[in-house]
Design a protein that fits this description.
GO cellular component, one term: membrane
Strand content: over 45%
Number of strands: 10
Keywords: Signal
Protein name: C2 domain-containing protein
GO biological process, one term: immunological synapse formation
CATH architecture: Sandwich
Helix content: under 10%
Radius of gyration: 19 Å
CATH class: Mainly Beta
CATH topology: Immunoglobulin-like
GO molecular function: wide pore channel activity
Shape: globular
Largest sheet: 5 strands, antiparallel
């Protein structure tokens, strides 16, 4: 057997491994909602939930100091942030924004029917 075969096999195995990164979403704030809400933001990356913020009560300009994380994110994955209004029986979706992730730190603005979602994210 050729002595380079095990090395070649190892290289092929290593090249097929997906490189995972850490994603942090932070500095979430919404401006100009058309009415007072009890709002929160749900985050998902590549279809997997990253959790949600706490509820910001009785405001049309909510903001959150929380950070949301994913340890399985990769550059080119889709990040979706959904702004929700918390109600007693059913929560209402106010809107959502989706972006394709890129490595590094990014500040984003999403204009959604007259109100604006600001957020930052970092992919390491």
């Amino acid at each position: 057997m050729d002595s380079s075969a095990p090395l070649l096999l190892l290289l092929l195995m290593c090249s097929s491994i997906m490189v995972e990164a850490e994603l942090k979403v932070y500095d979430l704030r919404v401006r100009n909602l058309p009415f007072l809400t009890d709002s929160y933001v749900k985050a998902s990356c590549a279809g997997q939930s990253m959790g949600q913020t706490s509820i910001s009560r009785d405001t049309n300009n909510p903001w959150w100091e929380e950070e949301l994380y994913s340890s399985t994110a990769q550059a080119d994955h889709k990040l979706t942030l959904t702004v929700m209004d918390s109600d007693v029986i059913f929560d209402d979706k106010l809107g959502s924004c989706t972006t394709t992730l890129a490595s590094g730190t990014h500040d984003k603005i999403c204009d959604e029917n007259g109100w604006i979602l600001y957020y930052s994210y970092t992919v390491k």
